[in-house]
Design goal:
The chain has helices at residues 23-34, 79-88, 100-108, 111-120, 122-129, 133-161, 168-193, 230-235, 292-297, 328-331, 366-371, 376-386, 392-401, 406-415; strands at residues 2-7, 12-16, 41-45, 48-49, 66-71, 205-210, 213-219, 227-229, 248-252, 254-269, 272-281, 288-290, 301-303, 308-311, 316-319, 353-355, 358-360. It is an alpha+beta fold. α4 (111-120) crosses α5 and α5 (122-129) runs antiparallel to α6 (133-161). InterPro entries: DDI1_N (IPR033882), Peptidase_A2_cat (IPR001995), Peptidase_aspartic_DDI1-type (IPR019103), Peptidase_aspartic_dom_sf (IPR021109), UBA (IPR015940), UBA-like_sf (IPR009060), Ubiquitin-like_dom (IPR000626), Ubiquitin-like_domsf (IPR029071).
């Protein structure tokens, strides 16, 4: 097993020892690592001094436990002060310090030890450097709890090795442990080889002008149409041009109300002007989305290598904005509405179009959508998705939203 020894002098020492090892042999190993003679070493565990003849297992020392080593160069002359040090630097059973102020002062007084702590455990080093003793105690308890959890997991894994091979429950646990081990290994490999996968992906924004008003445009090749919010259209002086005959509902991953359409208005990209049409959406969280219709019309290229968007077959090139140049409200998760996102966006394929006072209303399909909740086939889909851990209500809502499409409903549930 592995134990960590925090010395009173220069370093944090990690040792691989057997649980049946005696304290005296551990001190011998520490003498090699720390150059402190065995006679001057005083090992503490949970505030109690460890006798040379005791075995680690008998003292309750487990894997990843923390020991403290005091160096008593004049042990006989300083017996009383040594006893006080044991009392001050001891640890409670829950991992907290008996005297947190003395513990903090002791660690602070050793610059080398603090340096190693900042390298190996920055959070603990920070609270030791601070003045909040309650937070220090909380962190120490947390570290103790983490070690206890790891110890229990290792004990459970060891118990499974000796489990009855014909015990169904034991085999189920072994299967779960093997699966979890594979997940953990995959996670560790991702941290090593693909760490950027755990970072937030900044969406693509460029500077544009719409009818002379500067905007940060969200470039989304997965959205069918270019979208502008009602408030943004009003700010750009375009709301008066909105054709309300094109009202309806934008369907995608979620839905939003389409207020109408602005058929043409000038946008400025770089130093050039281009005609653009917009779907006006009732979406206060999103101002302007440059969609696939205009990307195609103006022969735009999204160049992720050079981090630019070219327009007009290369006549204009504008850089994508860095994170510091994007307003913070655009960086919040969910600031771009799901119905306008690149995940299955179908704007504006689901809108209601009014012409000559005659309504061609795709929402008349609602009764058909409701009928998908009837019958054994729909119930089977509910049961299958329910096995993934989602509530029946959430599953029914997702299936109705995607008209019974099981795969799209599952993607929506996992994405939510």
């Amino acid at each position: 097993m592995r134990i960590t020894v925090m010395t009173a002098g220069e370093q944090i020492i990690t040792l691989d020892v057997d649980s049946q090892e005696t304290v005296e042999n551990v001190k011998a190993l520490l003498e090699v690592e720390s150059n402190v003679p065995i006679q001057q070493q005083q090992l503490l565990f949970n505030g109690n001094e460890m006798r040379n003849s005791d075995k680690l297992s008998a003292l309750g020392v487990k894997d990843d436990d923390l020991l403290m080593m005091l160096s008593n160069a004049n042990a006989n002359a300083n017996a009383s002060s040594g006893s006080a040090a044991v009392s001050d630097l001891g640890m409670n059973p829950d991992g907290s310090a008996l005297n947190p102020a003395a513990f903090q002062q002791h660690i602070r007084g050793d610059s080398n030890l603090m340096g190693q702590l900042f390298q190996n455990d920055p959070e603990l080093a920070q609270v030791i450097s601070g003045s909040d003793l309650n937070k220090l105690q909380d962190v120490l308890r947390s570290r103790h709890q983490q070690r206890s959890v790891l110890q229990r997991q290792k004990e459970e894994e060891l118990a499974l090795l000796y489990a009855d091979p014909f015990d169904v429950e034991a085999q189920r646990k072994i299967e779960a442990a093997i699966r979890q081990k594979g997940i953990d290994e995959n996670w560790e490999a991702a941290l090593e080889h693909n760490p950027e996968a755990f970072a937030r992906v900044i969406m693509l924004y460029v500077d544009m002008e719409v009818n002379g008003v500067p905007l940060k445009a969200f470039v989304d090749s997965g959205a069918q149409s270019t979208i502008i919010s009602k408030s943004c259209a009003e700010r750009c002086g375009l709301l008066r041009l909105m054709d309300q005959r094109y009202k309806g509902i934008a369907h995608g991953v979620g839905q939003s109300e389409i207020l109408g359409r602005i058929h043409v208005a000038p946008i400025k990209i770089g130093n050039n002007f281009y005609p653009c049409s917009f779907v006006v959406l009732d979406s206060p969280n999103m101002e302007f989305l440059f969609g696939l219709d205009m990307l195609r019309k103006h022969q735009c290229t999204i160049d992720l290598k050079d981090n630019v968007m070219t327009v007009g077959g290369g006549e204009v090139s504008v850089p994508f904005l860095q994170e510091k140049d994007i307003p913070s409200r655009f960086l919040d998760e969910g600031s771009i509405p799901n119905e306008a996102s690149s995940s299955g966006a179908t704007v504006p394929s689901g809108f209601t179009e009014k012409k000559n006072n005659t309504v061609a209303n795709p929402t008349s399909q609602q009764p058909k959508r409701q009928n998908t909740s009837e019958g054994p086939e729909f119930e089977a889909k509910i049961a299958k998705l329910g096995e993934l851990g989602f509530s029946r209500e959430a599953v029914i809502q997702a299936l109705r939203l995607f008209e019974g499409n099981e795969e799209q409903a599952a993607g929506f549930l996992f994405g939510g």
